Structure formats: structure tokens, C-alpha cells
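Handout, section 4.2: multi-component inputs.
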Amino acid sequence: MADPAGPEPIPAPGKPRATIKEVAARAGVSLSTASRALTGRGYVSAAVRERVKKAATSLAYVPDDTARNLRQRVSRVFGVAVSDLRDPFYVDLAAGISQQCRRNNYAMMLADGGGLEQRELEAAETFVSLRVAGVILTPMSKNASEFIVNHGVPVVEVDRQFASGSCDGVVVDNRRAAYDVTHALTELGHRRIGLVIDEFTWTTGRDRLYGFRQAIAEAGLPENAGVVITSRLDVPSAQHTIVKLLSRRDRPTAIFAANNLLAEAVWRAAETMKLQIPDELSLVCFDDVRWMTMVRPAITTVAQDAVAMGETAVDTLLQRIRRPARPAYTVVLNATVVERGSSAPPPAR
Amino acid sequence: MADPAGPEPIPAPGKPRATIKEVAARAGVSLSTASRALTGRGYVSAAVRERVKKAATSLAYVPDDTARNLRQRVSRVFGVAVSDLRDPFYVDLAAGISQQCRRNNYAMMLADGGGLEQRELEAAETFVSLRVAGVILTPMSKNASEFIVNHGVPVVEVDRQFASGSCDGVVVDNRRAAYDVTHALTELGHRRIGLVIDEFTWTTGRDRLYGFRQAIAEAGLPENAGVVITSRLDVPSAQHTIVKLLSRRDRPTAIFAANNLLAEAVWRAAETMKLQIPDELSLVCFDDVRWMTMVRPAITTVAQDAVAMGETAVDTLLQRIRRPARPAYTVVLNATVVERGSSAPPPAR
DNA sequence: CTGAAAGCGCTTACAG
DNA sequence: CTGAAAGCGCTTACAG
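Output:
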């Protein structure tokens, strides 16, 4: 799609931008006065203020925030690091953070780690180096959070927590929600239930496992009624693992997938094996994402409001900046089971 | 989830960070020497370099990039503004941009506009103010791009173009792809085809409409064989509009949805009306997103590789920075129809 | 009410 | 090979 008028020259990137010095000169005032007129702090007569503003406009002056921040020792940028932008949960989180930042006149520096701790650490260093006013992250260890906090920058851990002593957090009650959704399965009469999960070392995985186990135990089922399957967190490899699981003679009659990606893998596995949900296999999971209301039957799941988590994280950070000395605290948001059609009593033997 | 050890004090955000001055002092050298040792530019003896580096490490020194950038007149941050993070297409785009930024050691400042031109303009001003090295955006008009370019910051427009004379662009051949997918419909024998679309004023909407019309015309069909339905770009309201369309006696036997959100709306509309796809209604669309391979039948669509578009946009920006004087150019990526099961010959009357 | 001066943390010619 | 000085663009006490 070439420009019909032919390529025009692009203004050279080196093109000098107007500085406050030039604004001051054009308005015939000193630097200090121009600054006061533009920022609104300090005294300046109405007439002069007008003249300065006019000069600024006519020069298309845009203040250099980096210079301003350097001087003022603050910036209006938050650093945000999420595990993986390919996962809809993190996307909703980022969307929530983004809009709440904007509402409060903060810009958002976003990094996504592709699930690698090393990248998270690099992002942490970048954020410190760029002198952001605060950081929100979905931590993979305590290292990034502590590094940032040690450099005097407030951190909010969201989704999971590793450094709850030294920074604030926003999470859901994973144990409770996992309990609820598993309990519903035992109530339906399932006696062999799979948990597909990718990790146990974060608070999320650990607590979802606890909740799962607790529901199994309270139903009076033997410990081996709960079969825990570990998988890497990507759909194809999880799908492969699950096909193997479902091929066993003693396969579970119900599966609890610990997040939306694993749920997708279970769903696809069932499809390729032509296993009917819920008649032959019940499926429940964590995270409520788009496709779960588009497939048939729709999927029963634990809905976490990721957008709200993101917004809350920003609010928490703002609070922390306002009151630095307050002890660290954790906000626990509600997560509720939304019943749809993907679970049913186990098939008769 | 309270910390079992009880809340510890959080390091005060105002906590002073080590500066290069302190590093120099501890190493017993001057500021200049410390700087040279740390940046690697300029002469410094091996012994001194070691001493300085050791001092930096022991002080957990992290250089202030904002100060460095101010001095050097460059930053390693790109500004990115996408229309809407709730739309999976833009998310993939952002993911591609994000990873390519990281590979090239750039940080990404992300803003999402929620589809409002005003927000795009605000983001543009923020980016200029923050002195980013370049901007990538999915423009909603020529205003933002031109504003940024006029301030000497290079811009790449992606997905659509408004200022192709004054900045680079990365797009797909929308006309061609729309033609192909519509042509497949006329070949199947459809004589009444709906185009559901949200705008015609951007290059995307305009070209998709052109391609659609062209295919209708070339099939020798009367102009009114193509029925164009305009809708707002959100699923519920589009769904409403489409239900009305499909309730008409002369309803189309096939629909081309101009993007993934509208496709979702059509799909949901068909479902609520219990219209079988593809037996009673063929559905094809633009954008290839997750759910399209999860519903049955899977959806035939024009697949644009949004991640690759994002990566290409970053590469383009990098090129532009390297060679500012080169005439503006546009990269046109391929977009191909992926046939799945959602289209079939029209039902017999 | 206004302006001259210092300084935020860094880098970079320039002298030595 | 090293250090003193200037300066990036801004803000902010401080004098007047």
C-alpha cells in the first residue's frame, strides 16, 4: 500500500524538540518562571502564565518527563511483569492493570516472561534501572520481588505470593475454590478423580492441591482416589499426557484441571479420544476464559476475576506509595464456582 | 495469607539507591573513571575496572537509565499502543512486539485504548513526553502518528495505516484475503452473502469490503447479493444485530465476519437460534483465534499471524532508527485462508 | 511576583 | 590512562 503521493521525507529522529528554555525565551521570561507557569506550582502572574502557555503551544512543547522525574525523584510509571501473554488469564490481569494505571495517570511498562524465571529477573533489573514508581508481578520465586524491594521500589505480588513479608499481595483463596469444585465432584458420586496440574511450588499450585486433597479426604475416599498428574504448562504436551492418563483402564471419571491451559488440553484430549463430556468424563477447572462458554457442553469452572485482580493490584500499589510505612498486607479476592454443563455423575460401570 | 513470621518492615520507598558517585568513592576513583569502567567505553586499566566493578556489585548498584538517557539523548524503550487488550488479535500482536523488544534489549511501554481515539492521542503524548525511542501503534486516525512523527520519534503503524507517507507500516493484504474467502463462498453456490463489519474508514475495513464486493461482482451476482451489516465492535451488541439479520425471510445463506469478535457474535447468534453451521448457515471470518478450533465444526478463517506482525513491526522500527533517511515503506505480510468445516453449499430452498 | 543558581545521576569531550 | 568540568532538561529553594 504505497502512498499515492509518493514517499515524503520522514522528519529526522534526531530532530531537536523544543525545550523549556526555548519556551521561556519566546515568552520573554526566565527558565524558572516558565517552569512555574507550566507546572502550576509557585507564583506567577496571570498575564505571564498566559504568555508562557501560548509560547509552549506555539512551539508544540512537550515537557521531558525523564528530566522532570530525574529532578523530582519520582516517576509516574509502573513496571508490570506477567508470566506469559499467551495465557488469557495473564492477559486479563494485564488489561485490568493497564486500565487502572491509565485512570490514575500512570503509564505501564510491560514485560512478559514466557514462563522463565530468568526473564523475570531481567525485567526486575530493567524496572529498577528505569526508576519506575512501583512494580506489579506474578512472581516465579521470591528473588525478583526482593531484589526490587531492596532497591526501595514497592512491589505487589499478584496471583501468587513468594515474599509476603516484604511486599503486598493480591490473590484468591485457591484452597477454598479448589475444595469447592472438587467437593462438587465427590458429591456427584465420583470415586476416582484426576487433578491435572503444572506445579506445586507456588502458592497457587500448592493451595489448589490442598483443596483437592481435602475434598477427597472429607468425602471419606481413600487417598488414591485422587490421582495427581503433573504436566508441563503447554497445551500440546499436556494433551499428550492426558491422553495417556485417559487410556488407562482405571482412568478417572472426572478431572479437575488446575488452570485454563490445562483445561484446554483435557478438553482436546477428550475430543480426540471421542470421550463424551460429561457422560463419560466430567471436567471442571480453574479460570474462566472465552472458549469455556462456546464449547458444548459449556465448562464448569472456578471464575477468578482477573481484570479486578489487576485493578486491585494497582490500587494496592497506590496505597503503598501513599503510606510506605504500613505493614505488608494481602488482599484475598473471591473466586466462585460457576456451574455449567461439564460435570455429571460418573458413568455406570 | 498472612506471613507466618508476622509483617516485617518494608524498606522505605524513599530509600536512597547507590549512585555512581558512591561506587567511585568506594573504588577510590573519579566519577569519570567509574563511568568508563562501568559502561566499557573509553580507556581504563584492567585493574581499576575490576575494582570499580567490585564496588558496584558490593553496593548493589543499578545505573539510573533515565539519567543516562537524558545525557545520551536516547532511550531503549518503545511505546506501543494497541486498540484493545480484550481482543485476542491485539493481544497476539502485543505478545509478538513484547518478545521482539526483549530480544533486542528494549523495554515496552504498553497502552491500550479501549477503542477510543482520545486515549490513543493521550498515549502518543505520554510516549513523546517519556522520550521513547520509537512507537508502534494500531492507529485509529492519522493524528497520533503524525503528532509523534512531528516530535522526531519514528512510528510504525501496524494492522492498518493512516499516515503511510510519513511513517512505516506493517499490514496484510486485506483486500486479497477478503476476496479469497468470499470467493470460496460464491464457488460453493451461495447467492446471498452477508458481510458483518464494524468500520469502513480504516484500511482494514475498507479493503475487506472491497475484496468482498469484488468477489461478489466477479461471480456475476447482482450487487444486492452482498448484504453489508454494520455493527459496533462488541459481542453482545453485534450478536443482537445478527439475530435480527438472520431472522429475515431473505436472510443470507453465508456470512463473512470481518474479525474475530464479530465472528464470535455470529457464532453465538446462530447457536441461540439453533441454526446449524454449516448446513443452514456458512460462516467464514478474519483472524484465527483459539476458540475457532474448539467449536464444532471448526471455523474457516483468514489467518493473520499477529505475533509475526508484531515482531516485524519491531524490526521495522529498529531499521528506521538505524537509517532515518530512508523513504517510508510498508511491509505486507501474507494472510491465508485456512479451510475448516464451517462452510458448505447453501441449503436447498 | 520573578530570576540566578544549584542540583537530580549520569556521560563525554578535553587537558593533563 | 585518569580526573575536572560541562551539560542533558528540568524543578526548586532562595534572594531580591
